[in-house]
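Why S46 family peptidase? Reviewers of the renewal asked for a concrete example.
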Amino acid sequence: TIARRSAALADTDAVSTYFASDPLVAKVRRSAGELRALGDRVRAEELDGKLRSAREEAARALRDRTDLYADGGRTLRLGAHRFAVSTQPFDLTVVPHDDGLALALTGTDYRVPVTDPALLADRPLWDRHLPSESPRVSRAEH
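Here is what the prediction returned.
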């Protein structure tokens, strides 16, 4: 969790502050000190090494984000090209597609036809926008 939390921090000051003040980091350092006091230097060095590598990985992730992203993370830079980054959450929905229904992933052009026999059996109801309408009774007559 230390590596995961620190990799998501916004700047180098936040990374430094996290490693200086987080209770979990302090607990790991305290455990390493206790292991040294008990004479188990190998395990103590292993804990210190994991903390050091988590801090280096956080710095690397931060550098990568600042090199790739612009405008506060809203634009991805690849050479001279800029691409907008979508931050909308994905959602799965059923939409009319070609002469049937399809599952669609919002924010994308992904479509896959619905093949569920129970849903396909209700095909006469697909054109009804309201339950009060039918081919024989229009909404105005209801």
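Residues 2-84 form one domain. This is the kind of structural detail the renewal will allow us to pursue systematically.
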